[in-house]
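Quick one:
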Amino acid sequence: MTSAQMRNDPNFIRSGVPCEGEFEIPLIKGESLPEGPIDLLACSRTRHHDTEENRRKGVHFFVDDYRFRALRYDVARFLPKFRQYAFLLSPDFSRYCEMPTWQVIDAIGMNRWCGAVWQRLGCKVFPSVGWSTPYTYRFRFQGVERHSPVAVTTLGNRRSKRAWLHGYDAMLERLSPSAVICFGTPFPEMRGDIVPVRYDIFRKEVR
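Output:
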């Protein structure tokens, strides 16, 4: 691919979707929750022509990054498989406290970029929202419409419960989500309209 072709490739330039904030984070627009109970299927367990039972579920990415890293390079590649499901959560790229700020911003941007592109291509998408240090709060919640459903996970956060709840409260203040899809057992201290989701029994697939 020539440089001229790359400049006109939206998958490389990351153009073609609305953005917001000083870092121009892609925006995932608000969606309404499906009626009835919510069940999720790990992206690593999706397959072409899945069963009718599984197609009624949403797809989550609360698994190790290597299982969905390819989305960084071609977000639409797996869409023929993903679009058969009821909805998608935006990919939860890791953002650890040890990471430099640019890497955290990149993880946020790719999370929102994938979700925004899928929405543009006709899928129902809910943003997966996470956080690391308080410093990241200034940009961590960008790219999500206020008063719309979001998804979080409590898995892997038991030992850092206080810090996680601090970020959760900051998310509530910033976004005022209409509902919070919680993958894993909710903490008793969590406020808001919590929609708990039993996490996958194949625990080795969940980080």
